[in-house]
Input
Amino acid sequence: MHDAYGHADVGARLMLIILCFIWGITWPIMRIALYEIPPLSMRTVTGALGALTLYLVCRFQGRSLRVSTAKAWLHITVASLLNIVAFTVFGSFAQLTAATSRVTILAYTMPIWAVLLAWLFLGERPNRMQAVALGLCATGLAILIYPLAESKIHRESGWHSSPVFAGRLARSI
Output
């Protein structure tokens, strides 16, 4: 029995490594694609491919995609607009105006915004660990943003990271 768990653990770790590689490589590939394909066109195609893949997986597994109530449809629509559409569209535009590495790091600041918005709107004060994490994240963001704020490029053409921040804020809600 122990051997079965050991193989499952190795398989899960291997899948995690593969997922991390695929997830990480999508950012530079997206940047390359954006040289040839406009952001909205690219995101329309990738969204359609994702929807088709989800449909085929559900059909293959014999699962239904039926949504039973209008309220559930409303929740799905709002969540998809804020979480998926805003993230992908703003992320694409951010990649056109800033370094991919910077955009990638800034794209995953959503937990910061979620904690801050929960504090602001829900009254959920951060605990000690969250406060330390917020401080470290804010320091990291300042280190990333400072060179942009001091550069001549920033003063002439605006803040290039704003689309990615807009996407993160939308995804946090």
